[in-house]
Amino acid sequence: MTLSFGPDPVGEEVRRVLMVLDSATGPVRGLESLHVDLKEEAGRRKGPTILPGATENDRAARVLAGEAACMANTPGGGVLVVGVADDGTLIGTELDAQWLRRKIYDLTDRRLTADVTPVLCRGVRLLLVRSPEAVHPVMYDHKYHHRVADSCVEVDATTWEEQRRRRSGWDWSAQDSGLALDAARSTALQRARDFLTAAGEEKNLDLAAASDSDLLRRLNVVTPAGTLTNAGVIAFVGRDVPGIDYVRREVAGGDSLQRIREAGRGLLEELYEVDRAIEASNPVRHLPRGLVNRQVRSLPPRAAREALVNGVAHRDWSTVDPVHVEHIGSRLVVTSPGGFIGGITSRNIITHPSQPRNRALADLLARLRVAELEGIGVDRMVGDMIRLGHPAPSIEEVPGPLVRAVLIGTRLDEGWMAFLHELDPARTANDLDALLVVQHLVSHWWIDARVAAPLIQRSSAEAEDVLHRLEDVQVAGVPLTAGVAGSPANEPPAWTITPAALAVLADRDERLGAPQRRRPSRSAIARSWAEHRGRISSSELAGIVGAHPTNLQRVLKDLEAEGVLAPGREVRRGAGFFYVPTGGPRRTT
């Protein structure tokens, strides 16, 4: 199968999806994304029967026109892969490409000219319907839609235009507000000085000692006309509605223990009070002897502050809605108005170059040391959570559009913390890519570049480099990882966490009185390997779990009996026998 896409992200993503579909071995779950949608041709199902295709299908054209318009209204545009069922079955399509292109053009009031290209996948004809990013929103059926994650959601034209304007680089927060400098609230100015003083360093202390007018000028919130920028007004003057709505509850649905929601204050005043409230309700945990940090908070303070500051710095300030901060037990949820911009998604937010919606405001908060320097805040938030054994923060766009960040600090993993402390080189524990991979290995026992790439949000080549580097890492004097023995030489390399490293982790858990760590079952490992790699043999499974291949044949036969695996060849006897996934029944344990 040959495609002629240029070197663009959408084209690369489509190429990857088609490779998975063409191989018939990879999982179809997760193939749909912001820019790619798998679509079955409408009108061809009659119960379980697939009806023959035709060159023209008005019902399908109407469905595809709406989906193509949605893609056009999405940053970067997108592609519909027509002829694929939700479960990945290749249904195919006989629709004429030029006829469909013309129908989409007519059905969108001649606003969208899509590129419709036929391709063959395992001998089945599919259509790629590519929508370029629209300059003006494309309406279909009297409504506007755009993609959020892997779904189309409705959006009004005003919001869409505002989002596009921000993507073009226009910064509302840097514009002239027309307000004089003396409009700045004295309490907000004092809070700016408090943040600078807390940060330390001579340059920050020098700035904190400046006069009010010099402080504002040196913070770059004064225009050439001598008035405040919009960022200056947000930070030092405030609005007649609250910028932050903070609520503290002990349990979900419980009574509110604390509420901070006050209008007419500068953002710096609100941040200062909410930051202190989060700290006061973030309990200190005392750790057993032997751990370097004897006391830690349930939620890493830097991660909690970064989630809060990101919520206000990158929100849409054109709406009166506040940033909602829910502090429930040891869970922090920050929901801010406005979706992702500049190509950022939940799948690339760790590694994507920073794209501030309000650059002047973000720069101000960074200068005050309220936020991390541009481009490293999310990295540190994720790393700080993982080092305590917490799940990585969830940062997603949800309908609204809104961005919701969730930090869960319910249980510290003391055995994991001790395990990380014994990594050699020690810098491995500060390497976010390595942390994400090791965390995955502890839970799943194997990994390859294809699995690691979306995990660390980097390319497959970069992911493979990380995996090779981990071969040189030890924990308590034993190798941390090793290549999976038994994997065919012509297959991409894969790695496993060594039995010796797992023994170190189990020992640290036992010493610290931690609950017994849940280990994946052999059948779960076999299923995941087969699903991702397209095959599984007793030798491959043995290379992961550290057992003899003959002791694992029953595991694979049981999965065959369940309909999960099928023989990879008719002759079962002899070396090299393997199974392939059927895409059949799945279990979660």
Automatic annotation (TrEMBL):
Annotated Schlafen AlbA-2 domain residues: 32-155
Superkingdom of this protein's organism: Bacteria
Pfam families (alphabetical): HATPase_c_4, SLFN_AlbA_2
Coiled coil feature spans: none
Name of the protein in its database record: Transcriptional regulator
